[in-house]
Specification:
Elements (H helix, E strand, L loop, with lengths): L1 H32 L12 H24 L9 H7 L14 E5 L4 E4 L3 E2 L4
Antiparallel strand pairs: 1-2, 2-3
The protein binds zinc ion.
């Protein structure tokens, strides 16, 4: 009898704990991905940085190939101009929702607003 009665509040407390944990989790994810709505990983997640850098390097290969084939073309400092030039089909995607506006025309590197530029090698 007493165990049954005692069991109920414990279950309720667990549910409340789970509910509050879910709310905290939701709030964190939302604040990280509000910009684009595409964010699937947190800004401070090391996995997000790895994927971001990998995406940057894939796009960088595309751009490097373009400037090798078009030596007269000058690299711009904005990713949007890069796409206009035809050096790049689309900007790299950051899994944490960072955006790519700036381009390092010196070493042809992309600059994520969250993770910065991927280290060369
Ligand atoms: Zn990033």
């Amino acid at each position: 009898m007493t165990t049954r009665l005692a069991g109920l509040p414990v279950a309720l407390v667990l549910m409340l704990l789970l509910a509050s944990a879910a709310l905290i989790g939701c709030g964190g994810a939302r604040s990280g991905g509000e910009k684009t709505g595409e964010a699937v990983l947190g800004a401070d997640d090391p996995a997000a940085r790895e994927v971001c850098y990998a995406n940057q390097l894939i796009a960088r290969n595309e751009v490097v190939a373009f400037y090798m084939n078009n030596p007269e073309a000058r690299p711009p400092m904005q990713v949007s101009v890069l796409i206009q030039q035809g050096a790049l089909k689309k900007a790299p995607v950051c899994p944490a929702g960072g955006d790519f506006k700036s381009f390092n025309s010196q070493d042809l590197g992309f600059i994520c607003s969250i993770h910065g530029e991927a280290p060369a090698d």
